[in-house]
Amino acid sequence: MITFNVVHLQGQEINCKKFHVGKFRHVSDVSGTTQIVRTKNTQTEVNEKLKVKVVYDIRWIDDCTYEISNRRIISEKNKTDKDEMNFILNVKILRSEGNKVFVSYTSNFSDDVYEGIMYKDD
Predict the structure, then answer these.
(1) Which domains does the chain have, with CATH numbers?
(2) φ/ψ (deg, to 5) at 26
(3) Residue (of 71, 58, 67, 63) closest to 90 by Cα position
(4) Model confidence over 76-109: pLDDT tens digits?
(5) N or C terminus: which one in the chain shows less Cβ crowding within 10 Å?
(6) Among 110, 90, 94, 111, which Cα is nearest to 102's?
(7) Are 34 and 28 in contact (CB under 8 A)?
Protein backbone atom coordinates (compact mmCIF):
# COMPACT_ATOMS: atom_id res chain seq x y z
CA MET A 1 0.00 0.00 0.00
CA ILE A 2 1.36 3.43 -0.97
CA THR A 3 0.42 6.43 1.12
CA PHE A 4 0.72 9.96 -0.22
CA ASN A 5 0.97 12.87 2.15
CA VAL A 6 -0.36 16.01 0.55
CA VAL A 7 0.72 19.24 2.12
CA HIS A 8 -0.94 22.48 1.18
CA LEU A 9 1.55 25.33 1.38
CA GLN A 10 0.04 28.72 1.78
CA GLY A 11 1.87 31.77 0.52
CA GLN A 12 4.03 33.36 3.16
CA GLU A 13 2.59 36.61 4.43
CA ILE A 14 5.25 39.29 3.97
CA ASN A 15 5.43 42.21 6.35
CA CYS A 16 6.82 44.58 3.74
CA LYS A 17 6.35 47.63 5.95
CA LYS A 18 9.19 46.45 8.18
CA PHE A 19 11.48 47.11 5.19
CA HIS A 20 10.21 50.61 4.40
CA VAL A 21 12.77 52.50 6.49
CA GLY A 22 16.07 51.64 8.09
CA LYS A 23 19.63 50.64 7.28
CA PHE A 24 20.28 47.95 4.67
CA ARG A 25 23.13 46.28 2.78
CA HIS A 26 23.19 44.98 -0.76
CA VAL A 27 26.12 42.70 -1.63
CA SER A 28 27.15 42.10 -5.24
CA ASP A 29 30.04 40.21 -6.82
CA VAL A 30 30.43 43.08 -9.28
CA SER A 31 30.02 46.20 -7.15
CA GLY A 32 30.81 44.93 -3.67
CA THR A 33 28.76 46.10 -0.68
CA THR A 34 26.39 49.04 -0.94
CA GLN A 35 25.24 50.58 2.34
CA ILE A 36 21.65 51.89 2.11
CA VAL A 37 19.83 54.27 4.45
CA ARG A 38 16.13 54.59 3.67
CA THR A 39 13.84 57.19 5.23
CA LYS A 40 10.20 57.88 4.46
CA ASN A 41 11.16 60.09 1.49
CA THR A 42 14.73 59.30 0.44
CA GLN A 43 17.18 56.47 -0.10
CA THR A 44 20.92 57.14 0.23
CA GLU A 45 23.41 54.60 -1.11
CA VAL A 46 27.16 54.53 -0.41
CA ASN A 47 29.51 52.12 -2.16
CA GLU A 48 33.16 52.30 -1.07
CA LYS A 49 34.42 50.01 -3.85
CA LEU A 50 32.90 52.22 -6.56
CA LYS A 51 33.59 55.35 -4.50
CA VAL A 52 30.10 56.70 -5.02
CA LYS A 53 27.35 58.24 -2.86
CA VAL A 54 23.90 58.65 -4.40
CA VAL A 55 20.58 59.98 -3.09
CA TYR A 56 17.18 59.09 -4.56
CA ASP A 57 13.60 60.10 -3.90
CA ILE A 58 11.49 57.11 -2.89
CA ARG A 59 7.78 56.57 -3.49
CA TRP A 60 5.89 53.54 -2.22
CA ILE A 61 3.37 52.32 -4.82
CA ASP A 62 1.92 49.74 -2.41
CA ASP A 63 3.19 48.01 0.74
CA CYS A 64 5.61 45.79 -1.22
CA THR A 65 6.52 47.90 -4.29
CA TYR A 66 8.48 51.12 -4.45
CA GLU A 67 10.13 53.38 -6.99
CA ILE A 68 13.36 55.32 -6.59
CA SER A 69 13.98 58.26 -8.89
CA ASN A 70 15.56 61.71 -9.21
CA ARG A 71 19.05 60.28 -8.80
CA ARG A 72 21.51 62.78 -7.39
CA ILE A 73 25.17 61.83 -7.30
CA ILE A 74 26.67 63.39 -4.18
CA SER A 75 30.18 62.08 -4.78
CA GLU A 76 31.72 59.83 -7.39
CA LYS A 77 35.32 59.02 -8.22
CA ASN A 78 34.80 59.52 -11.96
CA LYS A 79 31.70 61.71 -12.13
CA THR A 80 30.21 61.88 -15.60
CA ASP A 81 27.63 64.17 -17.17
CA LYS A 82 24.80 61.64 -17.03
CA ASP A 83 21.18 62.74 -17.02
CA GLU A 84 20.68 61.83 -13.38
CA MET A 85 17.09 62.99 -12.98
CA ASN A 86 15.64 60.51 -15.50
CA PHE A 87 16.81 57.41 -13.61
CA ILE A 88 13.87 55.31 -12.33
CA LEU A 89 14.17 51.95 -10.59
CA ASN A 90 11.07 49.92 -9.66
CA VAL A 91 11.56 47.43 -6.83
CA LYS A 92 9.20 44.64 -5.75
CA ILE A 93 9.65 42.78 -2.45
CA LEU A 94 9.16 39.10 -3.25
CA ARG A 95 9.70 37.49 0.15
CA SER A 96 11.64 37.81 3.37
CA GLU A 97 13.55 35.54 5.74
CA GLY A 98 14.47 37.18 9.02
CA ASN A 99 16.55 40.24 8.14
CA LYS A 100 16.89 39.23 4.45
CA VAL A 101 14.56 40.63 1.84
CA PHE A 102 14.43 39.17 -1.68
CA VAL A 103 13.58 41.70 -4.38
CA SER A 104 13.17 41.99 -8.12
CA TYR A 105 13.82 45.24 -9.91
CA THR A 106 13.40 46.84 -13.29
CA SER A 107 14.46 50.21 -14.64
CA ASN A 108 13.60 52.70 -17.31
CA PHE A 109 16.96 52.14 -19.02
CA SER A 110 16.78 48.34 -19.52
CA ASP A 111 14.16 45.72 -20.33
CA ASP A 112 15.90 43.21 -18.04
CA VAL A 113 14.45 42.06 -14.71
CA TYR A 114 17.01 41.52 -11.97
CA GLU A 115 16.75 39.85 -8.60
CA GLY A 116 18.76 40.50 -5.48
CA ILE A 117 18.95 40.23 -1.73
CA MET A 118 19.16 43.07 0.76
CA TYR A 119 19.93 42.67 4.44
CA LYS A 120 18.28 44.89 7.03
CA ASP A 121 20.87 45.98 9.58
CA ASP A 122 18.72 47.68 12.20
Answers:
(1) 19-120 (2.40.128)
(2) -125, 125
(3) 67
(4) 765 555 545 688 999 999 999 999 999 999 999 8
(5) N
(6) 94
(7) yes
